[in-house]
Amino acid sequence: MQREVLALYRTVLREASRKDGPGGSSFLSLLVTEGTTTSYARHEFRKQAHEVKRTDFKTIEYKMRRGEKQVKILKMPGVKVVSASP
Question: I want to staple 16 with a disulfide (CB 3.0 to 4.6 A). Which of 34, 37, 51, 77 is the partner?
Fold first, then answer.
């Protein structure tokens, strides 16, 4: 399950960096740039990770499914940021 979470995280960052455009594609610029889709995705992923215990598998699976749906939405051409709903 840890590999699936890491794969989702990489996919989220990859798609978010594509939305940021050609200037936000390098690793160093991803670390420095604030206010971008990538920084929002990184912040939201970490916030969600801190809310769940490592042994709460049902919640982790739910959040994984929800994250995969948000990645599908983020891949759509007209979408810039997928906001988190409570």
Answer: 37
